[in-house]
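User: Hi! Is it possible to get a structure for several chains at once, not just one? Here's what I have:
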Amino acid sequence: MTQSEEAALVAWSAMAAPADEAAGALVASIGAAEALEWVRWGARSLPAAAASLYGRCTREVAEAAVLAHERWERRLDVADEPHSRRATAIGARVVTRGAPGWPSALSSLGAAEPFALYVRGSADLDAAWSQGVAIVGARSSTAYGSHMAAELASGIAAAGRAVLSGGAYGIDAAAHRSALAAEAPTVAVMAGGVDRLYPAGNDALLQAVMNVGAIVSEVPPGFAPHRSRFLTRNRLIAAASATIVVEAALRSGALSTARHAAGLLRPIGAVPGPATSPSSAGCHALIRDGIAILVTRVDDVLELVDSSTEWAERNVGEVERLGERGREGVARPSFDSPADRAVYDVTSSRAITVERVAERAGLAWIDATTAAGRLEMQGLIERSKGGWKRAR
Amino acid sequence: MTQSEEAALVAWSAMAAPADEAAGALVASIGAAEALEWVRWGARSLPAAAASLYGRCTREVAEAAVLAHERWERRLDVADEPHSRRATAIGARVVTRGAPGWPSALSSLGAAEPFALYVRGSADLDAAWSQGVAIVGARSSTAYGSHMAAELASGIAAAGRAVLSGGAYGIDAAAHRSALAAEAPTVAVMAGGVDRLYPAGNDALLQAVMNVGAIVSEVPPGFAPHRSRFLTRNRLIAAASATIVVEAALRSGALSTARHAAGLLRPIGAVPGPATSPSSAGCHALIRDGIAILVTRVDDVLELVDSSTEWAERNVGEVERLGERGREGVARPSFDSPADRAVYDVTSSRAITVERVAERAGLAWIDATTAAGRLEMQGLIERSKGGWKRAR
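Assistant: Yes, the chains can be modeled jointly so their relative placement is included. Here is the combined structure:
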């Protein structure tokens, strides 16, 4: 890989929102450096740049790139900032897509594969992703949930596998902490830049993770952990060799990780709990709907990891049904485009202006407006106070 | 049905051990009265009686009857006792197979369908079995398990369905009690005669069940609740429209009921609990192995009942695998014959003479010996102190 290609991947990691599939497809087609040049050209003359693209990639990729151009152009200045230097300054290394040390397991993300990872800590990321197990769950875990997360993480560590999680309170913290106690590498995948140890209350824990394992992010240092970045971050965790959900309420973010893992045909385990515990309702729904296998001990987890090929075959049917069926809370609207998903993710029960929607979702104003219109037709969001909010 | 046919069914209910499929097949082929006459004839001259059978039923049925004759003949005197009169004397009614009020759902038991039911209480048994739900589980339940049993039973009762169980301590008692509290019919299926309110500690509860629902047994009054009768009794409970397992350790008898229900292609639900609770380990194994659906609330149970046809189709494959796979504790040896199973069931870790084995299993001495030989070859039981005990 040329130095300019590496530099361009870094620029793309800052310019495109995580999981921007139009960007991923363009870079895969013509290379990061040429794609970046194309964005600059388009900023001077989009019609000429657009015309130049046909023939160099498929019609779909070209069309998506032209539509996405406005949102990339708006962030060209951000792309040009010295992200690698900043990373080095805080003791982080930058691993670009395909470079030595790049986790090959991330290629299952297809066009949503990150352009670069910013890493603090010396863990072998390729091994962590290809053999490691993600443990995810509620921030507001019960003592039982934390116990189970620690128990499973300890067994996974003893089996020589890395424990991946999101560095959050509750289940995430219990899993990281237990792996650290076993002196085993653990990887915390952050939604914001690796300069921000988020949440602040986990500062000491994340420092320790850094010393033994690694803290990883696909966005450059300085980037804030926006809500939409948490949801796209979850796909990185879900790319581990298996995902275990330990305690999740019906609307827990951990279920988004499980859905991503299902989409990647990775084996998913869920830990049962009392039927009376709302903290286990999401796990029960995953098991009941056939998305996750019930796991109660580390042997179950290791069996799951070993079954990953078989699982992928078995679960193709399940995954196809994921969009349609599923119980309230597990079912998530299926979106016509990444823009629709991004807009939906930044809306809440409080109204927000379309400008703010565009900004938070990392979309051009016109894309945000169009997406909002589609979501309104589907009854997912509604107009309120000159802006948008989630439909009741 | 003629009076003598009814009387003969009563005699068979006393003479043959529950689930004696050779008896069931013979009675189904030539009628209870003729089959009884045939046993008497065989007692005088087995070769002549045996010869007479060929042509009146299939070769298999005839051969099984000839092999079984000795064990039936030994119990002809028991068959001749006045069971109906004794039942009436204690306020019980006798419903013979196929008579008005007979639960048609029991016909799915095939050759193991009981010959008669002894009933105390006025519940509509046909409705109870065809629409009712069995709730079974550990005798040594936790407070959580009892709560869940009560919660589900109460919802089943509110849906106008009977709650069936086994009248034991723990989960059974919680289920019956909750149905009673809802003033809904509940049915306790006993392993011994209905004159014995077993266990004695549930005397008051079983009296109440009798007043609102019914206490039912397939063996005549006076018969003791032997261990093998508990296991055969479980198939009657499993013939309900669905079976829900609430808390069961890995070796719980409730798993035998679940296995019977699986064999009858009835929907099975299991309530999850903490992964750390041995009382929920059997439920988790049933869910994990795909034998049961995870249920946490009464809506899940009612959905399961409504799905019974679909379930039966879906589960044919699962049931075929039941013999081979399954985890330790859920997996049960597969037996070559009902005699093998009966012998295995009456053995334990303490040695027992072959005479006692034959008596408890309701088998002829030669059949018990032969079965024990087969079980020894399979490594399931072993010789000890001139008798047999379970292999370690």
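Chain B has three domains: 3-81, 88-322, 338-390. Chain B has a mean pLDDT of 90.

User: Great, thank you!
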